[in-house]
Amino acid sequence: MQSPNNKMELEKESPQSDSQTVVKLVNGHHTDEDHDGDEDQNEGLFQISVKLPHDPYKIQVMVSLQEQVQDLCQSVVEFPRTFQYTCFHLEYNGNRICDFLSEVQGLKANSEIVLIEDPYTEKEARMHVIRVRELIGAAGDRVDNLHGLSAGLSLYDSVAAEESSEGSAQKGSSRVKDHPLVGYDLNAPSPLQTILPMAQPLPPRTIKSISLSHWNPPPYSLRQKGHLLYLQVTTNEGEQHQITAHVSGFYVNKCSNSKFDPFPRPAPKNHSAHSLLTLISHLSPSFDAAFQALQESNGKKDPLTIFPFQNAVPNSPWLVSPCASALNTHQPDITRSQENYLMSGVDNAETLRDWNEEFQTTRELPHESAIDKVYRERLTSKLFADYNDAAARGAVLVARGDVAPLNPSEAKDAQIFVYNNIFYSFGADGVSTFASEGGDEAARVAVGKDVMGIQTVNQLDIPGLYTPGTVVVDYIGKRIVGQSIVPGIFKQRQPGEHQIDYGGVEGKEFIADHPDFVPVFEKLSKALRIKKHPVWDKEGKRHDLEGSVETKGLLGTDGRKYVLDLYRIAPLDVLWAEDEGNRENYPHRIAILRLELVESYWRSKMSQYEADRRRVNRAEKAHEDNGDTGAEVSKIQKPSEKGEDALDQERVDISGFSLALNPDVFSGQVPLTDEEKREWARDENDVRDACGYLRNKILPELIQGLHDGDVGFPMDGQSLTQLLHKRGINIRYLGKLADLSREKGQRLQALTMLVIQEMIARAFKHVAIRYLRHLPFPLSTSCTTHLLNCLLGAEVNPSPQPDIDEWMTEMYPSDELAFKNVTPAALKTEIEHQVKIRYRFTLDNEWSNSLRHLQLLRDVAIKLGLQLAAREYVFAKSQLPCQDQTSTLNGINGSSHDEGKKKKKKSSDNGSPSRVTANSGAVTTFVPDDIVNVVPLVKDASPRSALAEEAWEAGRISLEQNHKQVGQELILESLSLHEQIYGSLHPEMAKLYHQLSVLYYQTEEKECAVELARKAVIVTERTLGVDSADTILCYLNLSLFEHHVGHTKIALAYVRHAMDLWKIINGSNHPDSITTMNNAAVMLQKLKQYHDSRKWFEASLTVCEELFGRQSINAATILFQLAQALALDQGSKAAVNRMRDAYNIFLNELGPNDRNTKEAESWLEKLTLNAVSIAKHAKDIQARRLRRINLSTLVLLGTKPQPQVGRSLPETTSSRNDVNNPHLDTRSIDELLKFIEGNESSSPRSKQKKRTTTNPKVRGSKQSAITSL
């Protein structure tokens, strides 16, 4: 259970950790301040006492009057010493507290509230048993249709613990590891273990088992006497106890396995307690110690890593530990099958909810005051989370065929279902509604856009306009829509009446325009920049609609106005449709503009209007003045800065600006009169302009921003999609994006590769969906692995065969096994075709030979919801074992048969890179066992909290205006609102923690920044994925913050982890890796690891020169830093050369007067003087050595054998042996002077010696050294 009052959990569950800092941040007050007074009590926190009926008898709790009593109760439940309380109420001055604490008369600081234990009901008893099982670690693993394996995983603790464990291990080790980046190979691929959880020791076992007894449920006669449940508990001592759950609590009864007697035992074994947790501690002598050890074990983890989810869906990683691993071992637990009863009761009636009524009544809650708004948005967030969870679970059952359709005689795509009071249908054109728009493709797109439109309407929160709860679930090739049942949607209307009250009916043949819908649709259209426009029915009658003809209004039997079918709330992208030319047609005709693009276009036109208006006003003002016109114009154009701001504020006036787009142009509507035709033509021109704005401004600006480094570079397909959607760019423009990035050349090569990979992954997804859509569920893994072998394993096996069990082949007809005929060549052709028609891009002929296999596999797995077993997959023949391994395994070539078995066993233990299929015996990259699970992909319509976002935006603006105190108060208020509304684990919380940590870092509150950055890492990992682009960014920010507070070693551990994640999701040479490597190099300098720091600067320079060029300012900046690093690493001559290069670039690009040029010139002089000084000192030392050598036998110099090239002298050579060492530099003084002047290159021997002092992993060219970054 997770407390909504998260600040209390952090304070009480981890009192020894740094979370107290977070408590201060959450509440905006220091918890250690004196709260005896009543000042600021209405706004801040104060302390009260809670009197308990049992030990410890009293606890202190921090509360706020804005909280509800449920928050306080939850805080008590989560407090370590009051875990046993679940069924109770709170009283103050003898009166029960029922709602907000602000309504309690006389409640103030140091008041005492009394906890009163309540009698149990059956439901309360069941919830208590579930709670106790979770607390004592007896819950076991659960099989979940919605959440996959390792759902909500966080690796933060293991990443942080790795560095601390290494540090502690060094104390007893003679070989000290200086920092986490020692030996880090920038060329080597990242191990997949990077994104897998570490094996954890088993937690302390508190009890052997706790389950429902076979005597449960109580007979009718005993239910009347207060018997609720019968339990069976087996303690660690091996004793079995039968327990009765009674309205008064729990007691040990006299039942045995064969005898039923559920009444209390006689003394002295008459143990009883109100809480089952307390009763178990009386029955098992070892329980208290084991439970304490379990709490201590859990306390070692960050609380956020183990908090359960409440208002969000945990992320399910695409790569998980194999089923045979200890992490995924299936353990026996008889209560696993009993949990549904414990949670939902006998008839499952407790989970049946009237979702639609809950949604609408929540929307109708008052929201005038701030407290009302918080309560309403908090309840809305929780309701949407519950509905999304329930709808997704039902959709999975529908996809698997476990729910009976209401119309079994209809075609499969036309079947509808009702489960858990949720209406389900397939995202396919089962009744030919979209026959003219593209059939199934159009229907699939329409339902996806519909849920986005509903989310937009929910966010607008227009009074009087209602939407049904809607979820779209993609699962094993099927798209399923789950909606709450709108009252009256299935009502049989009278003859002549239509099912719809506003908008198009039965296509566009009939148009309904109920007047009651006009006011609410008018508000909606104004918010969406939609123009009121005419449409015509089949009889040519004109109807003026506020929205698209496809958007429908339904007057429910409950009297509410519902809006449906919101997939056409923006105009069609007419330029895309007209750009087809000789190309094949786009798969559907629902290619509409995104709302972000419409809003951006509106703002652009508004800015243009305002600029034109100001220009006209200035011209008129200048013309009216009879004095010195030029002086007046000058005064207008160049006022004081303060006056300009005030003047601009006064002049902002957009009351005369009006722009709205017609969503129904180019959709078959035919105006009749000349005036209608002229108006229609103007509407068409407006839409064309919006489409041209996307092509001619938004796309080029994005490319230019990426080229110049003004826009953050995407790392994978998900971040690329977010980048495009944020700017209103549809995914269908990926081909155009690839063409534009190619024109920019090497600078955007990484973007070109990423865009092409995304197109291939999406094309493969569409191909896979076509085969999986009507495929029986047991065959889905065989189909998917076969398609993956054709895409990624064609080099390993050019002719893969699907691995299907024989009994499945016999059970299912052959027409359902069409995927068996897919070959790598056929799949390649189909992918090329899909890319061509969907993105209008032609792949190169050799595209399949240049794939980044691991990255593409990850993208495909995420898009299909696959969870793959972690092992080293082989994608090329070069990675296969040697060809003579077969003969070796068979005992040939001098090896025995037993030795072959050992080799085979060893290969198996290490995770064989290739598998042998059951049917053909041929080696393939993937087998069905590699797909451990498939998780549903959910698109929901949950709105964001407007109240929390307003507080954040107000705080941010206040800080920008230097109102620090007001800004911080507003931001902390926003954080408190976010936590109250969303809970601790939510993507919006991850985003806020990240933004707030950056904000605190900028305001020099670095300790707070570190704490918030840690929370951002954990929440991002658990909600967005352990290897998401956002997670990498959070780790990099955390490393920077940790470095600035003096924790450089742990910062480098975070850098290493982020670099490993980078290699997995993107590969090498990502543009943003330059900054990361620079930061790592600076951190290494802080640790005085100058040699390693220099290597990271060199790697950064290599990537920078490849992307920006050798003569770029970016390269000069890194050269400047590298020169300093070389100087610190005793490379004085190289430092001079690098600084000279940097100076020349700054001089050519920025000029001699630029600050960077002058600084480089100053450093060049200093480094040159230092190099000359060092060289002269070395010359003097060498001269003394030469004099010593001349005193000895000169013949030895020429007769002593020289070491071979590539060999070095022993490191233990003493200083005495140095005298006769011919490997020392014996050049003349003149040669040394030439060396000082930089006119002589090192001899081959000195080169070899210098090479042996560097890292052997950097011996190759710079290109190879940076390949894997």
TrEMBL record:
Primary site of residence: cytoplasm
Compositionally biased tracts (Polar residues): 886-895, 909-919, 1210-1220, 1253-1269
Domain of life per record: Eukaryota
Gene3D superfamilies recorded: Tetratricopeptide repeat domain
InterPro entries for this protein: CLU-central, CLU_dom, CLU_N, CLU_prot, GSKIP_dom_sf, TPR-like_helical_dom_sf
Region called Disordered, residue ranges: 1-41, 617-646, 886-919, 1202-1269
Residues covered by the Clu domain: 333-577
Family of the protein in this entry: Belongs to the CLU family.
PANTHER family to which the protein is assigned, alphabetical: CLUSTERED MITOCHONDRIA PROTEIN HOMOLOG, EUKARYOTIC TRANSLATION INITIATION FACTOR 3 SUBUNIT EIF-3
Subunit record text: May associate with the eukaryotic translation initiation factor 3 (eIF-3) complex.
Function: mRNA-binding protein involved in proper cytoplasmic distribution of mitochondria.
Protein name as it appears in the record: Clustered mitochondria protein homolog
Organism field: Elaphomyces granulatus
